[in-house]
Amino acid sequence: LLDDTAPAAVKLTATKLGLREASALTGWNFPIAGVLDGTLVADGQLGALKTSGKLTLTGGRLPLGWSGSALTEVEATVSFLEQTMTVEKFAGKHPTGDFRAMGIVDFARVRDPLLRLSLTSERTLLGLFDDRVALGVALDLTIAGPAGAAAVSGEARPLSLKSSGAID
Asked: Measured between alpha carbons, how far is residue 60 from residues 32, 34, 100 in Å?
């Protein structure tokens, strides 16, 4: 799979697959959790995969980078058709707020997929000025373009503002 022309074939059928337990089979202790149900079939060259299927994640925990931050209580449903993944539902909690997303990921260019996603949050806390100011906002955003250079647009409506010290 290091080459876009290498053939690949994957058929996954998951029935109440525990992600924490499945990840332990690698010998690593990945900070991931949740239960996966559904099917995914992918066949063809990496640069021209043909996919089908639908996967549902319940009670998920997905790490965000190496900081220890994670989305928790993730509930998601994604479906696959040809070279498109449709995010039918994605909801999760983060210490800064609750988030929901839906849309399409077109992976015809698998190394830099095309995103067309909407992201919403009824309330998110943003830390400003070294976290001395907490700004609460409602988000209604669109993420569009290649993943490596996606544009983010939309609204961030202010809901609250708190200061915990002097701002230099």
From this structure: 7, 4, 14
